[in-house]
Amino acid sequence: MIVDIHNHTKLCNHAEGEIAEYIEKAIECGIKYFGFSEHAPMNFDEKYRISFAQMREYEKSVLDAKEKYKERIEILLGYEVDYLRGYMDDRVLNADVDYLIGSVHFIEEWGFDNPEFIGNYKDRDIDEIWQKYFDAIEEMANSRLFDIVGHLDLIKIFKFMPTKDITEIAKNALLAIKEADMSIEINVAGFRKPIGEAYPSLSLLKEIKKLDIAITFASDAHKPEQVGLYSNEAISMARSAGYSECVFYRNRKRKFIKF
Question: Can you name the residues that pair with 3 across neighbouring β-strands?
């Protein structure tokens, strides 16, 4: 991947390694534009994210690395922000960053992708869960707060699949993403999870291409050795869907590059 803009640091409390280790691995993998997008602070689920008090430390660490490595790779600064009504904070939404990734990790405050709460699936209708998830994605796009949609179909993480057609469930969300002029990442973290495939699936990516929605790439690394993993699969998938260029962001401005 020439672009890889969704990666984490140990400040989120569930990642390992130093910023320099991630960057050195990115250089080794031939990545030209590498971004950190730490789990943004909010007053909910605090143990899996940085605190508001750490924002300055995080941003300075990434910007210092950007300067240090500027002759070898371009480092980008972002946040991955949970779309959860009542908890998003202007200190994050107005931060001086290159991009904001909007992600849905919660359905009505249920952390559906956290193994701690996997038991909740058995008490719920799977089609309803999927629809509520994509309704939240649609609402997130309509908010116009973010640049990139994070791991679009994360709801499939544990392989609890709906009985309904996924493209129909996701249709309105994709239309909202198109209307908001957001991009969608091909996030390879799914290869490391029970679902065993990227987010989004190839079938959804083909629908995304039909709408001419831009894409970007993401290792979603929580360890340095995860940087660049499955990059060949991600590129092959993008080309299979008809893509030949992707995007990255500087100062909230989108840039296109061929891959």
Answer: 33
